[in-house]
Specification:
Residues 6-61 form the HTH deoR-type domain. With 123 residues, the protein is mostly helical. The protein is built from five helices and two strands; from the N terminus they run αααββαα. The chain has a two-stranded antiparallel sheet. The protein has helices spanning 3-19, 25-32, 36-48, 76-90, 93-121; strands spanning 53-55, 59-61. The protein has a single domain, classed as Orthogonal Bundle (Arc Repressor Mutant, subunit A), CATH 1.10.10.10. A hairpin with a 3-residue loop joins strand 1 and strand 2. The longest helix is centred in the last third of the chain and has 29 residues, at 93-121.
Length: 123
Amino acid sequence: MTRAARLARQMRIVAAVTRQPGVRPAELAQIASISERTLRRDLNSLRRDGYHIRYSDGYQIQELLPLGPAQAANGLGSAYDRQLRLVRSRLPERLAEQIERELEAEAPAALASLVAQLLERHR
């Protein structure tokens, strides 16, 4: 498995835990299409990289993304920076640079899409 594939799998784990607080190990492993043993290794790796994932009646991530300037250190920009650092530290330089360029190009549209989904959900 390539480093990029492993990192992509770990980002799917972060996304699943963020979307479904309290997700059980077996379900999370199934979502990520991995064994529970691999899940534990990935979670340990993510914790070492600064993700505050804990188990309390299911996996939870202790990371809300306040968007206001008063909480900038814990905000969306902070999460973005953490993920870029992870990409840079785990992938070959050329691939990391390519991912960063594409992320910068696609992030505004992805965020706009998310805002639209949330607005539609709460009409």
